[in-house]
Amino acid sequence: MPHFLHRWYCQFLISLFALFLAACESKNEYITPPAPEVTVSQPIQKSVTEYLEFTGTTQSVGFVEVKARVSGILESMYFTPGANVQQGGLLFIIDPEPYQAELEAAEAELISAQAQLGRAQAELNRADELIKKNYISKTEHLQRKTDRDVAKAAIGLKTAMVRAAEIQLEYTQVVAPISGRIGRNMVDVGNLVGEGKATLLTTITQYQPMYAYFHLNELDLLRVMKLRNKQSQQSGYETEQKSEQALNIPLYLGLVDEDDYPHPGILDFSESSVNTETGTMELRGVFANTEGPVRLLPGLFARLRLPIGTNPGALLINERAIGADQSGRYVLVVNLENKVEKHLVTLGQHIDGMVVIEKGIKPSDKVIVNGLQKARPGSVVSPQTESTAG
Predict the structure, then answer these.
(1) Looking at residues 282-302, what average pLDDT do you find?
(2) Mean pLDDT value across residues 26-42
(3) 383 preceded by cis ω (within 30°)?
(4) How far apart are CA 228 and CA 335, in angstroms?
(5) What domains are defined for the chain?
């Protein structure tokens, strides 16, 4: 190889090697990635009605087992199973003939007793005249008076027997003791009922109004008591003397297929003491259950909401901002240096996708509501406000 070609070839290799080293150096250069974008929002501050929320069960205001109060053949039935019946409405007739005969016999005995009283009174009147003339002895006069008193007492006894027979006859017509929805007939027409015991004929359940029973834990109970004491002081201790029903405390109910609490009612009753085994107190609400088709049936699972006061400066944030780990519930806040801070929070009630924060943030805090997976405590982010975030 000529000398000049050899020199040129060596310079080419040196240049190629230099380019290779330069390329390697450019690949190893570290470029800081841009800060991840997150969406932030400041808490909304507004007046919020504070509630306590419970779960409970519905129970009918009235449930009656309709039983035969006299024995006899079930003669007829006057209702459709599952229909609504009114108080006093005729349901069954038990063969009344034996009881009609007993009533007539009792009435005849009363008439006989009345006749005996009339005769005894007449004999006493005659004895009163004879004793004045000393035609009869005092003993005989006393006997006439005793006969009259016995006859008078017999009137009372026979009158009671007539009334008892009338009652037995009335019992042959079985009527609805309350208004409500009637169950099926437990005995068919033509069967003997009431022989030896009161035969169950049917049942009636009252749906309007409807009760809901639930339990208040000790912590919430003390909170309510403190609020009630405050109200008592403001009203001159008048509320302490009133029952829950008289205080007209509102209560709202929702069923499992309802998002809200569409059934309004009032707090009706509370037990007088806390159950030491459960640490709770039983309460009861009453609901009219008259809105359209009957929705509240006995035995349903119910959600209940009891307003207990107003928080005029509550802080609310979007539920999406809430995280949870072993330390509890928290939110991620962006500080003035765009660094992420973790704030443990105490949650209050949930309202239309928002949640009240009772402790842990300030009104000026920028809370991350979107992009939580990109943010870590101590990391730098690029915050975008919720209203302008693209």
Answers:
(1) 89
(2) 76
(3) no
(4) 41
(5) 37-48+312-385 (2.40.420.20), 52-60+207-310 (2.40.30.170), 69-95+173-198 (2.40.50.100), 97-171 (1.10.287.470)
